[in-house]
Write a structure and sequence with these properties.
This protein is mostly helical and 277 residues long. The protein has helices at residues 2-18, 21-37, 44-69, 75-95, 100-117, 134-153, 160-183, 195-199, 201-217, 229-246, 253-259, 263-275. Keywords: Membrane, Transmembrane, Transmembrane helix.
Length: 277
């Protein structure tokens, strides 16, 4: 009985990860941080759009090419289609409750998402397969959606603090993707020319550590500096260094899909925890 419960939990956990719910929690956590640090009221509309939009977009990117080629769909793919359809509907409804500027920003990032999968013009190449560009597109989308969208929808000005926040999110996403690329090294097509394929695993780890320097010190350039942020970000830096040190092509999928993608969630939880100390 206990063994059956363990099997059922493992299946559910795999489904939770593969259906993109965990990565959606990560982006949503970053949005909540934007509400807090930019003194914005909580917006259920923006939160719903980001969460369900992430579920739909990630599933679309991962599974659309597979579903198109399949003649028979597995139960998992059927469940992904159902969840993605529901997520798309909720995200679409949320979209119409945004202000005009936020809608235009959403359309821009949605357009990038489409180009990420669908070949450009008559070419058979999409943004995902363009050598070296993938990590920047994903980082731009994460930073833009989690930082700019809540601010634009609240009709707030994009000042220097927002630029620094955007830069931090961009760098953080870039770092997490690099850890993913180390983990996926043996699976990635050599034509993708990922960073580990180009410069090697060790130099990629050095690059991550180097990127952590501006990620950390950008905090001190903000006008609205929070007293505990130096410690919160320092904890986050040590966690990322830990994940980077143990990153390896032979690690299981849980290493990145769960643990590494939990970094934004951890960041948010640390902010909440230190806010009540």
């Amino acid at each position: 009985m206990q063994q059956q419960s363990t099997i059922n939990f493992t299946r559910f956990f795999d489904w939770y990860l593969q259906a993109s719910f965990h990565v959606a929690l990560a982006t949503t956590a970053l949005v909540q941080m934007t509400f807090y640090f930019c003194y914005l009221s909580f917006s259920a509309t923006v939160t719903a759009l980001v969460f369900f939009g992430t579920v739909f977009s990630y599933n679309f990117i991962k599974y659309a090419p597979i579903i198109v080629k399949r003649k028979r769909l597995t139960p998992f793919l059927k469940s992904v289609i159902a969840i993605s359809a529901i997520s798309m509907l909720i995200a679409a409804i949320s979209f119409f409750y945004l202000n005009f500027n936020a809608q235009m920003l959403t359309v821009f990032f949605a357009f990038l998402c489409v180009l990420y999968v669908i070949p450009v013009a008559k070419s058979k190449t999409n943004l995902r397969n363009l050598a070296g560009i993938k990590i920047y597109i994903v980082s731009l989308c994460w930073a833009g959606v989690t930082t700019l969208l809540p601010i634009v929808n609240a009709d707030q000005m994009i000042g220097t603090d927002v630029v620094f926040k955007f830069s931090q999110r961009f760098i953080l996403t870039l770092i997490l993707i690099l850890i993913f690329e180390i983990n996926d090294l043996k699976y990635d097509d050599i034509r993708l020319k990922t960073v580990p394929q180009t410069i090697g695993v060790l130099k990629t780890k050095y690059l991550i550590v180097l990127l952590l320097i501006p990620f950390y010190f950008l905090e001190f350039l903000k006008v609205n500096y929070y007293g505990n942020q130096w410690l919160i970000n320092l904890i986050l830096v040590f966690v990322i260094v830990f994940f980077t040190y143990f990153a390896h092509p032979n690690r299981t999928k849980y290493y990145t899909l769960f643990w590494v993608e939990s970094v934004p969630i951890l960041w948010f939880l640390l902010v909440v925890l230190f806010n009540y100390i």
